[in-house]
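User: For a benchmark we're assembling, each entry needs the component sequences followed by a predicted structure for the full assembly. Here are entry 17's components. Please fill in the structure.
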Amino acid sequence: MDTRERLIESTRELLWERGYVGTSPKAIQHRSGAGQGSMYHHFTGKPDLALAAMTRSAQEMRDSAEAAFTGPGTALQRVSAYLRRERDALKGCPVGRLTQDPDVMADPVLRKPVEETFAWLADRLAGLLAEAREDGELDAALDPAATAAALAAVVQGGYVLARAAGRPDAYAAAVEGALGLLTRPKGD
Amino acid sequence: MDTRERLIESTRELLWERGYVGTSPKAIQHRSGAGQGSMYHHFTGKPDLALAAMTRSAQEMRDSAEAAFTGPGTALQRVSAYLRRERDALKGCPVGRLTQDPDVMADPVLRKPVEETFAWLADRLAGLLAEAREDGELDAALDPAATAAALAAVVQGGYVLARAAGRPDAYAAAVEGALGLLTRPKGD
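Assistant: Structure for entry 17:
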């Protein structure tokens, strides 16, 4: 791995573990093994490097969701596969955790990949739920966009509950509760 | 407000805005107007003061939830009132945000109020959902504990989505989606 790559990957890890406010240029240099001069050769500063790291984490989150969304099964089965896919629930979401960072939220450039990723996710889930409704898999009374928002929230909130409890199964319980609500027999 | 009180309230605000990692003793002294000597007269250090602040925030979160849980209406109406009650969605949850703080999660003493608050909330919601099920308000096929976990996750994840979007209505959309799933006609 070249230095630029090591800097990005180290920043991704640190942002995930400690957030933007808790990640110093010195910590990035220490973890990546790159010197200060090298860091400022490749990036203009911490915001620039953080943006590269966040953009990559956001892309990975999309790719991994997209793999579930385009996998086998009906639309509802693919939504379920997305919710249930293996996650390190105690680590939390590398993109969602950035919403708790005041310095990220206050900077429109840094906030953009976070905002876009969740907008994309909500849109993608709503599309699949609309498909499920057309196929008679999902109750026609349910609004795809609002239901999609609820499911995206369950994932993000599931991480919060898992970390609060110190147990990954708190994430699984939230997801199973949501799927119970989503897939129970239609009321029509 | 006396100095001890000002220190606790200032720490609560800073923890809410910037988290534990992002809150320095100096920032607490600056916001509270208390000197260093005064701070260490009342508290042994940042962890001790943070614990007092977190314990109070956790108690307020319980009190405000309990007000909805014991309000008017059926069990399901009280759960809905809890989800819909007025919140500053863009500020996020003062207790939930602490789960993103590595130094809080790594310290069993600091993590305790966070863990206990969410355990209490899940238990309380599960009790109300069990009551709703007994009264025929809720589908008998739904598991109260898993459904409660899903609803608690929707609240926490709703904050994440609202902050990501920079719009409080993203919280409302997630809650309405969850209530749509919860209150649609029973399938039996």
